[in-house]
Amino acid sequence: MNAPLQSTRNPIDPVKLEKLAEVAIKVGLQLQKGQDLVMTAPIAALPLMRLITKHAYMAGAGLVTTFYADEEATLARYAHAPDESFDRASDWLYEGMAKAYAGGAARLAIAGDNPMLLSAQDPAKVARANKANSIAYKPALEKISNFDINWNIVSYPNPSWAKQMFPDDPEAVAVEKLANAIFAASRVDVGDPIAAWKEHNANLHRRSAWLDEERFAALHFTGPGTDLTVGLADGHEWHGGASVAKNGITCNPNIPTEEVFTTPHALRVEGHVSSTKPLSHQGTLIDNIQVRFEAGRIVEARASRGEEVLNKVLDTDEGARRLGEVALVPHSSPISASGVLFYNTLFDENASCHIALGQCYSKCFLDGASLSQEQIRAQGGNSSLIHIDWMIGSGEVDIDGVRADGARVPVMRKGEWA
């Protein structure tokens, strides 16, 4: 008897994948003629990388240079490398990236790694490697976090990621489900994605403009396990959707995005807060996070899972226990409505209001492009080697804006804009 023929149907819609590549270049980066592009990608994302490269050159890119990551090679380090390896990182590579950005290059990252890749590895080694990498990456990260350049992140449905999300499905089915979820969240499953992004950006800009007009001194979050007052930095500014980088180019850094966000004051956060979704960080799932702030600093932290990793993250540096971002996302956002947990912060943060430990964004200040690092710190901006978002919003969370005189204005009720 002949063996049954295996299906050769591509689980990833090639038309939508092409649209995603086009959106990455035309919406995400708005890549300019003659501009170089530095791209990072997992090897599994080669199909998307090649399409993005094609669209970059069609847009007039000067040179596209891509660096790849491989899951098996990463695991080989943990299996066979000497102990001292975990205190090292490729500083020469990141210095080169920083030099490229200083010279005008754009940056694009394709996300898609297995979020639980390192879950079985020694947490101490994972923490050491992450810290070494954060230190080495800082010259390049500063160009990104300070919004010196146009940059963008998109995602590809890596099979290992898909199987984490849909473990009971055959690989092809899991990949197809993840691909369709990525396409929907990235707004490339419509006839004209460019027009859809234009309308979406306009809606986010309207929310940001209202918050800027209100000039709240703080936001007060209340809900199950949460009573948190987040003071906002002096001279803060709200952003959402497309923004103008310091190089004058308008870009959408995150695809997808549903958030409007700004900078908290590093010294003015008080109270306690509980996470509403798990945080997948460097291969470890950190769940049911509960922290307490005093004078802006986390003084107590617990988690039902991944607590050891959480505390190592908080000990990265002084700024790791303070906030660098607060973001508002309606509970009815398309990603939240999908009911899917992506185990990927790029998506999960856009399903929920969230806060970020660590480095602030200098663009979230009035005239931020002209402020020195000393001025940003004086106005309450936080500095750190890390920037890690975790989710604190749900359909049970209320948010009030608190004015300087103590007056309160409803911002969100039951997770929706008031």
Poorly predicted spans:
none
Distance separating the two termini: 65 Å
CA radius of gyration is 21 Å
What structural class do helix, strand and pairing data support?
alpha+beta
**Mean pLDDT rating:** 94
Strand order within the widest beta sheet: 14-13-10-6-5-18-19-20
**Bulk shape:** globular
Major pleated sheet: 8 strands, antiparallel
Strand content: 15-25%
Strands, count: 20
So how many helices? 12
* Helix percent band: 25-40%
Structural account:
The protein is α+β, with helices and mostly antiparallel strands. Helices cover 33% and strands 24% of the residues. Strands 14-13-10-6-5-18-19-20 form an eight-stranded antiparallel beta sheet. Strand 19 (408-413) and strand 20 (416-417) form a beta hairpin. Helix 4 (91-102) runs parallel beside helix 5 (123-145) and helix 5 crosses helix 9. The radius of gyration is 21 Å and the shape is globular.
Question: Topology, pairings included?
Answer:
Blueprint: H1 14-29, E1 37-42, H2 46-58, E2 64-69, H3 71-80, H4 91-102, E3 106-111, H5 123-145, E4 151-155, H6 159-165, H7 171-185, H8 193-214, E5 218-223, E6 226-232, E7 243-244, E8 250-251, E9 260-262, E10 264-274, E11 279-281, E12 284-286, E13 290-294, E14 297-302, H9 307-314, E15 323-328, H10 334-337, H11 345-348, E16 354-358, H12 373-378, E17 387-391, E18 398-402, E19 408-413, E20 416-417
Parallel strand pairs: 1-2, 1-3, 3-4
Antiparallel strand pairs: 5-6, 5-18, 6-10, 7-8, 9-15, 10-13, 11-12, 13-14, 15-16, 16-17, 18-19, 19-20
